Amino acid sequence: MERLEELLKRIDKFNKDRDWDQFHSPVNLAKSISIEANELLECYQWNDNANIEDVKEELADVLNYCLQMSLKLNLDPIEIINKKMDKNEKKYPVDKAKGKSDKYNKL
Questions:
Q1: pLDDT tens, 15-45?
Q2: pTM for the whole thing?
Q3: Where do the domains of the chain lie?
Q4: Distance between terminal CA atoms of the chain?
Q5: What is d(CA 91, CA 13) in angstroms, rounded to the nearest whole number?
Q6: Which of 2, 72, 91, 101 is deepest in the core (most CB within 10 A)?
Q7: 29 exposed, middle or buried (CB, 10 Å; 0-12, 13-18, 19+)?
Q8: Residues whose CB falls within 8 Å of the CB of residue 66, separated by 6 or more in sequence, listed in order
Q9: CATH top-level class for 2-75?
Q10: Long-range contacts of 72-79 (CB under 8 A, 24+ apart)
């Protein structure tokens, strides 16, 4: 938890020091998340053996923008992920979902 708080402060400071916060509206951050997620996918465009360094760079960009969006919307990333996990655990009970990739309404 402490490491996450330090990281959030570092991201916030980085953007404020450069006066970039003005560009980070929720819609712009959502666009950036999508763009960076596609760059992550591009690492696997032609085969399953992506360069791990490229993957780490793109994954870091995705996570960075996601964390920036949580800051912008004043959301606790741990809280919202745990809440979603609670929902997923109910939608995908182990006894029905184990080893299956079906959507919850098809289990």
A1: 999 999 999 999 999 999 999 999 999 999 9
A2: 0.89
A3: 2-75, 77-107
A4: 35
A5: 38
A6: 72
A7: buried
A8: 33, 77
A9: mainly alpha
A10: 72/24, 72/25, 72/26, 72/29, 73/26, 77/4, 78/1, 78/4
